[in-house]
């Protein structure tokens, strides 16, 4: 059995040159997917869904304006996506439909008084 050498130390671990846990230092937090975030690009330094990767989203106003109708469309689009072969044109079309529906739902939620999201 190996001898427990940590128990015999007189100095705390921080003074012995202990390494920080991976992903816990400020440099690792400031980098997301290889891009420096700078910490305060979006409101409050958080990722903002409406401006993902610096591209503004376009709300499709031709979609229904009520959440229940949008949720029904969303369920149908999910079913189409799940039935389609992975990476097929039908799969991609269903994913794009889901994106449009989710953006419209988010716009409706933000416009509510008080905002839902």
Assembly context of the chains: single chain
What's the Cα radius of gyration? Answer: 24 Å
Number of helices: 3
Taking the sheet with the most strands, its summary is: 2 strands, antiparallel
**What is the rounded distance between the termini?**
56 Å
Number of domains: 2
Q: What pattern of helices and strands is seen along the backbone? A: HEEHH
Going across the biggest sheet, name each strand in turn.
Answer: 1-2
Average pLDDT over all residues: 74
Beta-strand residue fraction:
under 5%
Q: How many E strands?
A: 2
Helical fraction = 25-40%
Shape by Cα distribution: elongated
SS-derived structural category: mainly alpha
Summary tags:
117 residues, mainly alpha, 2 domains, two-stranded antiparallel sheet, 2 strands
Please give a structural write-up.
The protein is mostly helical. It has 2 domains: 1-48, no CATH class; 57-117, no CATH class. Helix content is 38%, strand content 3%. It contains 3 helices and 2 strands; from the N terminus they run αββαα. It has helices at 26-29, 67-83, 89-111; strands spanning 31-32, 35-36. A two-stranded antiparallel sheet has the order 1-2. Strand 1 (31-32) and strand 2 (35-36) form a beta hairpin. Helix 2 (67-83) packs antiparallel against helix 3. The longest helix has 23 residues, at 89-111. The protein is elongated and about 70 Å long.
């Amino acid at each position: 059995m190996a001898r427990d050498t940590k128990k015999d130390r007189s100095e705390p671990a921080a003074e012995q040159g202990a390494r920080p846990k991976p992903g816990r230092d400020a440099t690792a937090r400031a980098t997301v997917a290889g891009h420096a975030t700078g910490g305060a690009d979006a409101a409050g330094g958080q990722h903002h869904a409406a401006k993902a990767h610096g591209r503004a989203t376009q709300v499709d106003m031709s979609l229904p304006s009520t959440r229940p109708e949008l949720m029904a469309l969303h369920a149908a689009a999910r079913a189409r996506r799940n039935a389609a072969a992975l990476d097929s044109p039908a799969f991609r079309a269903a994913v794009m439909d889901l994106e449009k529906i989710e953006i419209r739902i988010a716009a409706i939620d933000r416009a509510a008084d008080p905002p839902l999201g």
